[in-house]
Design goal:
With 457 residues, this protein is an all-alpha fold. Helices cover 81% and strands 0% of the residues. The model has no long low-confidence stretch (mean pLDDT 89).
């Protein structure tokens, strides 16, 4: 729902008012969270989550496009940098807060799974009050007609694409549902491009991608989230499955990365202004490459203190790469299309996240299955262990409780699968580091090539 509606949400905000889109999105998000917290069935929870996704598709584009209205040009890069830092850090803080309220910790009592929804309600209420009191109205002063056909085509194309990417590792890349989703995405995507070329008032003017700042910025945001979401996903599994962290402890373990991202982000604006955004993006990917290097050396008993350095570097690299890219996207976008520019930025993040989980998740699973040795494991757990460490742990736990599997056999299962998962995690991080290094080199070479051409003109 979120990824498929981003373009539409941004366009509606531009046409009818970004403040109104933000308030409406927040209201629906809060109501969805309330519904989820009071739900008594899985179906109601799914409806609540869907409503929250739809609402977020209006909130996210509006927040970034409102910055263009509020801040003068000289201050916008810093404002966008702060926005990017909090957006990146929020991806780590959100799960940690949810785990804190759901499971409890120290002086915070456990409120149950409902708290994962309900704590959003007072937060949304407070934000809505602040928006009403302090944010100005913002909309295109010369609004164009909406593009309903373009909106419908983009919703179908993006929803199908993201669905196929997410479900590919689970159902199989050659399964009928996944292939059908990709076919729908290709067909509707092609029709969308053709329509945007011919429409009198296109939702997404394709000439925006002719600006290198816009196209390269979008590509960098996507690639940043490919490696970072893959890292967050696998890191959480590693510290829980192998190091024995609880879900809450795993969320709290990533807090240094979130704090680093928020601290570094404001400094990227003056750095980009002085050295050029593409250089800073290249430095960001170089820092991410350095992040993944030590993670390629982890073992089954690695200390958290060893992981702390890479976590801090990850936050810094995220802000250095993503913040100038987001600023380039918004600078290249005309004011009257600020919501669409913001939506493209958010869509790039969402697409990168889906690709990161799908590709790096599938890669680590493949390495795990090729590494784990189940020949000497008890037959009751051999089959689950061959699939994944999570399945092996669940099977060993259930069989141990029933008395079917002895403690020694259960421990042997966890030891073998833990070593295989660690190998998979380490090798996947090494590949992520190589990809990040290649991205840094490509950006730097592109910058030098463009500078050389400019000097020859």
């Amino acid at each position: 729902a979120f990824g498929g509606l981003l373009m539409t949400g941004g366009a509606i905000g531009d046409r009818y008012g970004r403040k109104g889109a933000l308030l409406g999105g927040l209201l629906v998000f809060g109501l969805g969270a309330l519904l989820g917290g009071l739900a008594d069935s899985a179906e109601v929870i799914l409806v609540a989550r869907g409503a929250m996704g739809v609402a977020a598709a209006f909130v996210m584009p509006a927040t970034l496009s409102l910055l263009i209205e509020i801040f003068p040009p000289a201050e916008r890069p810093t404002a966008i940098a702060v926005w990017s830092g909090f957006a990146g850090g929020g991806a780590a803080i959100g799960p940690a807060l949810t785990g804190l309220f759901v499971t409890g910790w120290w002086f915070v009592p456990s409120w149950g799974w409902e708290a994962g929804f309900l704590y959003n309600v007072p937060v949304v209420a407070a934000v809505m009050i602040a928006v009403v009191l302090w944010l100005p109205r913002s909309r295109d002063e010369h609004p164009r007609h909406l593009d309903p056909a373009g909106a419908a085509l983009s919703i179908v194309a993006m929803t199908a694409l993201i669905y196929g990417i997410i479900e590919g590792p689970e159902q199989g890349w050659t399964s009928a549902p996944v292939l059908s989703a990709f076919a729908v995405a290709v067909i509707f995507g092609a029709v969308l491009l053709r329509w945007q070329q011919r429409a009198r008032h296109p939702m997404l003017p394709l000439e925006l991608f002719g600006d290198r700042r816009f196209s390269i910025g979008s590509a960098v945001v996507t690639m940043t989230f490919v490696v970072m979401i893959g890292f967050w996903f696998l890191f959480a599994l590693y510290v829980q499955f192998v190091l024995g962290y609880s879900a809450l402890e795993a969320g709290l373990a990533t807090m240094p990365e979130a704090l680093s991202s928020m601290v570094v982000a404001p400094f990227t604006a003056p750095l980009a202004a002085r050295y050029g955004s593409r250089r800073i993006m290249a430095v960001g990917f170089a820092v991410l490459a350095l992040t993944f290097l030590p993670l390629a050396l982890v073992d089954t008993d690695t200390s958290y203190w060893f992981l702390l350095g890479p976590l801090v570097l990850a936050g810094a690299g995220l802000s250095l790469a993503m913040t100038p890219a987001t600023n380039d996207i918004m600078v290249a976008t005309p004011y009257d299309k600020a919501g669409i520019g913001s939506a493209v930025n958010d869509t790039a993040r969402e697409l990168g996240a889906a690709l990161g989980i799908a590709t790096l998740g599938a890669l680590s699973t493949s390495i795990y299955r090729g590494t784990v040795d189940v020949a000497h494991l008890p037959p009751e757990v051999a089959s689950p262990a061959a699939e994944s460490m999570g399945a092996a742990i669940e099977a060993a736990y259930q069989l141990s409780r029933s008395g079917t599997l002895g403690e020694a056999a259960a421990q042997a299962t966890i030891t073998e699968t833990g070593q295989a998962f660690t190998t998979a995690f380490a090798q996947t991080m090494a590949i992520s580091g190589a990809v990040s290094a290649l991205a840094a080199i490509a950006l730097l070479v592109g910058h030098l090539t463009q500078a050389r051409r400019g000097s020859l003109v």
